[in-house]
Amino acid sequence: MSVEENVYALEKKRIAKSFGSAAKHYELVDQLQRTIADRLIERLDYFKLEPTTILDLGSGPGTSAKKLSKYYKKANITEVDISQAMLIHSASNSPRFFSKRSRLCSDAEALAVRSRSVDLVYSNLMLQWCDDLDLALQEARRVLLPNGLLLFSTFGPDTLKELRKSWQLVDEDIHVNAFVDMHDIGDALIRAGMENPVMETETITLEYQDAKVLMQELKMIGAHNVNKGRRKTLTGKTRLRSMLSHYEQWRVNDYLPATYEVIYGHAWKPEMVSASKIDAQTHSFPISAITRSSDQNE
Q1: Which of 206, 226, 259, 277 could form a disulfide with 14 if both were Cys (CB 3.0 to 4.6 A apart)?
Q2: Where does 26-284 sit in CATH, by number?
Q3: This prediction's pTM
Q4: For 48-96, how does the pLDDT look when each residue is reduced to its tens digit (9 = 90+)?
Q5: Where are the alpha helices (DSSP H) in 203-285?
Q6: Are the CB atoms for 154 and 261 separated by under 8 Å?
Q7: CA distances (Å), 123 to each of 10, 244, 283, in order?
Q8: Residue extents of the structural domains in the chain
Q9: Which residues lie across from 103 on neighbouring strands?
Q10: What is the pLDDT of residue 17?
């Protein structure tokens, strides 16, 4: 592997296949995703919105779309996912008649959606699966109407830190995806031509009696290792036992923690976006627009 190669680059086909395989049993182990979706949708109370068109970007099995349809009863909601199997699963559990929900299989970095056609782009835990965050945010801005809102959640760098550090003590391969820092996301939003970005973080810690259960749950929701730097052969029982042994250093009160750093954010598409603003290499915005939770720093 060359030094120049990005070992954390994501492989889209593997992402689609992974989530497609997880579609039927995703909702058995997605309590964390549901919890974050609830907290993200609660943030809509802060805005005086009456959207008629909503894009649920990275819609998965349709959990958020169902909640959004109850929140905005008159809105047309398009569920967008890279996995066709997820969309089929969503459709099978949705009303067949008089539904305002539709589905589109599309890549967030190249949306098959008309420009300036959406009032609200909502995205729960999808951005971490984008190989080019700038491009995904530019696409979100493109499809938004002027004064449209982008509301999202994603995972930050401390996510699964125990699992990552345990694997790092075993070998130099990539076993856990990399996650983008909150401030880097803020920079990317400005580069995309969005205004007034506001973000905050929350740390959620899940507890397991066995790290194998955590790994099984990650597999069941389709959160496989899809980085180019992953081991291309089977990990092997010896390496796995070694990783599990190292993970034990984190055990507290008979439980092993799995940390998730959750980033919640929103930004607006301005009425007019000048080309110079989008193309500029250096941007600045008030640090007061970004808040950091007290538990983010270790």
Answers
A1: 226
A2: 3.40.50.150
A3: 0.82
A4: 899 999 999 999 999 999 999 999 999 999 999 999 999 999 999 888 7
A5: 211-220, 237-247, 275-279
A6: no
A7: 19, 33, 24
A8: 26-284
A9: 79
A10: 62
